[in-house]
Design brief:
The protein has 120 residues and is an alpha+beta fold. The chain is built from three helices and four strands, in the order αβαββαβ. It has helices spanning 2-9, 42-52, 79-90, and strands at residues 29-37, 58-63, 70-76, 96-103. The chain has a four-stranded antiparallel sheet with strand order 2-3-1-4. β2 (58-63) and β3 form a beta hairpin. It starts with a helix and ends in a 17-residue tail after the last strand.
């Protein structure tokens, strides 16, 4: 407990949460979705981020450097739900230029924290 307390005090521990088994909730499929916008102006970025903020299927979303502007992981029950997600959430957002989807076949590593020292 002393080590945990010192990590909390040093700011390494940002909070606590439970890790939910997505398959048990009926959403066993992870889809990695890369989204490119027409431009990267502030208004278009703000519009996109506001539009996706309340979507419960989006488990994580990152603004990227490189070929795509955003990369998100979406958890869905099946292909039909993913199709509805695209049609109802992503495609209607003004400024979305390109969407690329990759379906995860199997999780190999799912860490919840990075190493706290160089020694691992």
């Amino acid at each position: 407990m002393r080590r945990v307390r010192s990590l909390e005090e040093a700011g390494y521990i940002a909070g606590y949460s439970a890790r939910i088994d997505e398959a048990a909730t009926g959403r066993p499929i992870s889809v990695f979705v890369a989204v490119s916008l027409d431009s990267q102006n502030r208004q278009e970025i703000a519009t996109f981020e506001a539009a996706i903020a309340s979507s419960p299927q989006i488990m994580s979303c990152y603004m990227m450097a490189g070929e795509t502007d955003y990369l998100m992981r979406v958890a869905v029950a099946d292909i039909a739900e993913y199709h509805r997600f695209l049609a109802d959430v992503i495609r209607p957002i003004p400024g979305v230029k390109r969407i690329s989807s990759s379906f995860a076949l199997k999780a190999i590593i799912q860490r919840v924290a990075p190493p706290l020292s160089e020694n691992g």
